[in-house]
């Protein structure tokens, strides 16, 4: 895709040459890094639309790096790793990954997943910018104790205590639950309703996103407004403590 910028983090130089050349042939601008430090330096000095990163690095653990960068950056993140098993996949989703691709992988499949994710992201941004509902304005959805969701900044804010930043997926899921007005929303309804805007494709990714939202609320407020209804789904309601 012309003009889309990708940051590739992989310590295998041969593999980075292959992947970067393949993606460049499709019009992407690819910046290659081989260490955690070089990766972090690039995030400070440049803007990217999507990150493709390995977990096994010479100077850092990819999961910890993912967790650290998610505190400041909201761009799409694809994990491409030889690590297998549901535990590491779930851990990456909980830390903020948008996709997990296991090595060895198909270059064509990788490009298609990257393209689809970027197209969905652009489509959502365009519809959000032109939405008549946003133009009229419910700009604030109250939560509790002065905390509210702000649709203008796509964040959780407090009247006095500042702002809690959210990834696009976290914001979309929280807003989806708020718009249910206290009703229980099933995981299947969440997947169907947010498959494009929040890139949710399976129950595993829903659970991970719920976990991340709760973790942020617990960190900032000591409580979370997300309520689990056993055997049914989730709703926004009475506050849950950690």
Question: How do the strands and helices of this protein lay out in sequence?
Answer:
Elements: E1 5-9, H1 13-24, E2 29-33, H2 36-45, E3 50-53, H3 62-70, E4 76-81, H4 86-95, E5 99-102, H5 107-130, H6 132-136, E6 140-144, E7 147-150, E8 155-158, E9 162-165, H7 168-178, H8 187-194, H9 203-221, E10 223-229, E11 233-241
Structural summary, described in words:
The protein is an alpha/beta fold. It has a five-stranded parallel β-sheet with strand order 2-1-3-4-5, sandwiched between helices. β1, α1 and β2 form a beta-alpha-beta unit. α4 packs across α9 and α7 crosses α9. The chain is globular. The protein starts with a strand and ends with a strand. About 3% of the residues have low confidence.
